[in-house]
Structures are given as structure tokens and as C-alpha cells.
Design brief:
The model is unreliable at 1-17 (pLDDT under 50). This protein is of the alpha/beta class and 457 residues long. The protein has helices spanning 52-60, 82-98, 119-135, 164-177, 189-196, 212-215, 237-247, 268-277, 289-298, 301-307; strands at 21-25, 39-45, 65-71, 101-107, 143-144, 184-186, 216-223, 253-257, 282-284, 312-320, 322-323, 328-337, 350-355, 361-365, 379-386, 394-401, 425-426, 432-440, 455-456. It is 23% helix and 24% strand. The relative contact order is 0.15. The strands form 4 sheets. Strands 11, 13, 14, 16, 17, 18 and 19 form a 7-stranded mixed β-sheet that branches. β5, α4 and β6 form a beta-alpha-beta unit. It is elongated. The protein is built from 10 helices and 19 strands. α1 (52-60) crosses α2, α3 packs parallel to α4 (164-177) and α4 packs across α5 (189-196).
Length: 457
Amino acid sequence: MKKILVAFFALAISASCFAQMKGVAFKPSDEDFINPERGFVSQLDGRSALDLNTIKGLRDAKESMMWRHWSLRNFKDCDIPQDFLDMIASDFDICRQGGIKVIPRFSYCSRIGDSDAPLEIVLRHIEQLKPILQANADIIALMHTGFIGAWGEMHSSTNGLTEPDKMKVVVEALLDILPKERCVQIRYPSDKWKMYRRETPLTYEEAFSGSNLSRIAHHNDCFLASPNDVGTYRTNIETEKTYLNEETKYTPMGGETCNPRNNYPILRKKTLHEMERMHWDYINSRYSRQIINQWIDGGYYDEISKRLGYRLVLDSAEYQEEAVPGGAFKINMCIKNVGFSSPFNPRMCELIIRNKKSGESYKALLPEDPRFWFVDKDIDFTYEIGLPEKMAYGEYEIFLNLADPCEKLYNRPEYSIRLANSDVTFTKEGYNDLGVSFNVVKKKGPKHNSFLKFHKF
């Protein structure tokens, strides 16, 4: 569901009428830790196959995604050979083993003036890549359009691929390959205007709808390097930034800096303001070191590292101290997002309870969509959840599980979101242990009347 739900799912006569509620306040953490689909990323060229040690090194550096850039410079007039396709598939396998996601980009040249490939070759290559991309769609966080011009940055094409109609063909070929939940990023905001003849940003109602318009996102590859970010903003800087401020509420935003032009000053206030305004999710950790070193020397690199993407803090909770089998368990939570943006891919929100003595566990999928857990707004939700009639009496621990919904990733803690609290433990299963519990007791009480139910697993 799109909207933040604050609802009570019970009749006036319910278990909550006789049960006492207990409130608890949680402490935020100042720790900089890894979380999926956000943060600093390394841009690695695909000249040779990845190895697992490289991926482990990225995770040790708190990077949960990798920007993988494969060069197709040797295949501008022919098919991609099978051995190169095999290397790409192997790269995805290694990333999966290592527990990170991939931001893929393909390009044909790395210098303005060098040739890219004609449209028919680009489309043929996309068709060749289709089986690999689809087989690994779960670990593709998002994709750069690439293919067009120098570095795949969608400029300086020698084959006319920056013409809006041709550009749209490439973008939509990639959208057709990927799941409806995944976005493709383009280099310049004005290109979306030209391709779709619309200059208004996405609306709340259009967000995450699966339409092509809702899936075209933005990347900026010269962030902070000049007043117009070295041509990123091509028409009117303030107009385009206002547009991006709205668009990036609902789409991923990222990219990299580049070497500053004419000693353009990099200021703490401007950097943080721009990242907040454009809802930055990720940025290249390796380029440009001129700017990144200024962040380090200025003492605000750590703040950027912690706030890129989402940063979810459990502020408080109130929960039922006792419940009966077949009755309802009531809980409400307040979460704050202190990052630059909200999660941009689908994310589960499960409440898990576990018997402290036997380990018997139950889960309920809450109708929450963390993609709408926006920055600077309290995320409040209250639910009554039905308990099984045959569950054992005893004390039950409470967990919040923000897992990746993809089947192969659901049980992998590397792909689950950790809350930014010092008094919430991130378990080996990838759950957030709230450190509180309630008792299921032998008492008479009304049966639950909620559409939400706990299921044993």
C-alpha cells in the first residue's frame, strides 16, 4: 500500500480492552554501518572477472552495492562474444555470493570524440544481455542507461543516439527487460522531458506504478563540480533542481562527482543541502578524490556516509503486555527517517514473534510500503494482529524484519535493513530485535477480528 497507514483493525470489544499496553522509547545510534541499496559505492571497470575477495573488501568498506561498468569497445560492429557474456554472468554470481547488489552500465568508448555503436548494434547487444540481466534482476539495484556516447553518459554520441526518439528506444529496451519494480537512470533531467514531452515531475499517485515514466530515474556524474554540475542542468538550473527534488522522492538518485572546474568551491552547507534536496541514495567512492578528500578534510564525510539513502530510526513503540491464543496482539511503532531519501525498491515489513523457551516463531506481513517512509516525517503505524488458537503459552520476543522480497534474498541478512538504534540488535537472521517481549497467557478473551494474522514458520 502506498500511504502510511495509521489504523486500528479491531472491534470496540477486543483483546486490547483488557490488556495493558506498555510503552518504550528507543535510542538512536551514531554508528556508520552497512545497509542494502544505499551508501558509497565503488565504480569498477569490467575489464576482467571479479573475485570474491574484491566483493568482501567492498562490504568491509561498508559498501552494499557496486557500480559495474563493462566496456563493449571491441564489439561496436559485431555480437558480444560468448566468453565475454560468460564473464558478465560470472560477475553477477560473485556479487550474489558476496552479498551485494549491482548497478550495471555498458559503454563503447571512454573519450569524447571516439565512436559508440549504431542503434541496431546497441539493441542487438541488449537482446544478448537480456538472459543475464533477467536471471540476476533480484541483485540489480537499478541500471544506468549507458550505451550512448562517451562513458555511456548519454552525450557525444557519434551515431546520433542522443536524439530523443533514439534515446527513448534504448531506455525502453532496458525497461522491457527488467522487472516493473526496477528503475533505469538517465544522465540529464531534460532528456526525460524531451523523450516523453512532459516537464512536470512524478506525482504521488504515479509513484512506483510500474509505468515507464515512474521507472526512469536520474544520475548525476559531475555533482558539485561547477554551478551547473558541468552541464547536468542544461536549461534552467533552478527549474531542473526543483523538478528533481520531486522526482527523486520516488526514484533512486546517485552518480559521482568529478574534478571541479575553475577552483569551484566545495562547501559543507552546499553539499549537504544538495544531497538532501535531490534525495541522494549512492555516490561513487573513488571519483573524484579531489572533492571526496575535501569532504574528509572538512569533517563531514562521515555524515554523508551515514545519511546517503535511508537511515531508519525506531523512535518508540507501544505494545500489548499480554495476549491469549486466538486473540489479538496490538502494537504501534513510530519510525523516523534521518537519511537523505527513502528505500527505492520494494521492501517487506514483517513483525516476527518468537517463543523465548522453545524458539517457535510466527510472522505477520504488515501492509506497509517502506518506499513511502519519507524523510523528516514520523512514520506511525498501529495494528492488531490475530494470534493462532493453538500457540503455546509463554514469553515471546518481538522483532521487525525489513527483508528483501525476492525469494533468493529473503533469508539473507546482507539484504535486510538494519535499524539505526543502539538498543536494537541486528540478528544473524537479519531481524531487528526490539529487546522487548509479551506473554501469551491462559485466560479467557475475545477472538480476534483482524485481517492480519500471525503464521507459524
